[in-house]
Every structure is written in C-alpha cells, then in structure tokens.
C-alpha cells in the first residue's frame, strides 16, 4: 500500500513560471461518484502526456491518504475518458518546479476550471519541515473544493467570488 503525503497551496503571481523545468498536459476523469453512500475511494483515469494510468485514492481529506496507481494502455484510457467518466474530464497543464529539496507540481487548470492555479508538494512524512517559495500563497490542503475530484463535480467557474477568495 502506498501512502501519499501532500500539501496543497494556491499560487501567487507568475514568478514560478521562469523556474519550471518542464510542463505536461493532463486529462483526467473519474469512474465513480464519490457522493454515493458508502464511497471510500475515488477511481481516476489519467492521461499524462503520452502515458496513462488508473489511480485509486482514499477519500480522506487532509495531508495524507492511501493511493494506488497502475499504468494502463493509452488507447484504453482515451476511450474510458470519453465514455465512462462521471462528470466532466479535468484538463490542466502541470509544471514541475524544483525548490530547495522538493519538486513542486503546479497545476494551471483549463476549461471550466480556468483561472485556478494550485501548487502541490509531496513530503516524506507528515511532520517534514518545508520551506515555501515566495510564489506560494494560502494553504488549501484541508479544503475539499480544491481537490481534483471536487473540481470534476463542481468546477471553479461555478464558485462564488467568496469561495474563490477564501
């Protein structure tokens, strides 16, 4: 079993773009409705550039949760994204930025989530010290609406101004 330990932040400004080592287009969709009674996990299909995978993640909110990920055939993934997903497919450009000893993944969302930019960083333990770059804004690790699964059900374009500013 894999355990993902990750913190999530909003991004300020565009200074991070000059530090990006690479960028990759992502398309991902969910095969289950997490709002069904008894749901304990999300099941996601993701195209990441020219690779594809299926991912199962526990529905815990917060710093760490169980995660399983396995490669799948790209053509199969494309078909599943078109025919089997619950809700819309999320598209984003992921930028990779190295800062100190961590690789930050910065997601600039497209489509109905356009305007939202979120930075994530994986940690080796929940109490690991983390130095934040100047372009990192408010932490949103504990706010469910910033999770990709939530964005697939209620996109950023449907958020109130208050939700976007809190």
From TrEMBL:
Domain CYTH: from-to ranges: 2-153
Top-level taxon of origin: Bacteria
Active-site feature positions: 30
Family matches, as PROSITE patterns: CYTH
InterPro entries: CYTH-like_dom_sf, CYTH_domain, NeuTTM/CthTTM-like
UniProt-listed SUPFAM superfamilies: CYTH-like phosphatases
Pfam family, one: CYTH
Protein name: CYTH domain-containing protein
Taxonomic source organism: Hydrogenovibrio thermophilus
């Amino acid at each position: 079993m894999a355990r993902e330990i990750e913190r999530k932040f909003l991004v300020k400004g565009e200074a991070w773009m000059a530090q990006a080592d690479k960028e990759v287009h992502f398309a991902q969709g969910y095969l289950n409705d997490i709002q069904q009674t008894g749901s304990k996990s999300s099941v996601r299909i993701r195209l990441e550039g020219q690779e594809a995978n299926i991912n199962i993640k526990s529905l815990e909110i917060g710093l760490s949760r169980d995660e399983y990920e396995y490669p799948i055939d790209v053509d199969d993934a494309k078909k599943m994204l078109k025919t089997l997903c619950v809700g819309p497919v999320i598209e984003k450009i992921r930028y990779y930025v190295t800062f100190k000893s961590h690789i930050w993944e910065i997601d600039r969302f497209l489509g109905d989530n356009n305007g939202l930019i979120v930075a994530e960083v994986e940690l080796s333990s929940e109490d690991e010290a983390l130095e934040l770059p100047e372009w990192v804004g408010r932490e949103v690790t504990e706010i469910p609406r910033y999770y990709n699964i939530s964005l697939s059900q209620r996109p950023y374009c449907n958020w109130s101004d208050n939700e976007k500013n809190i």
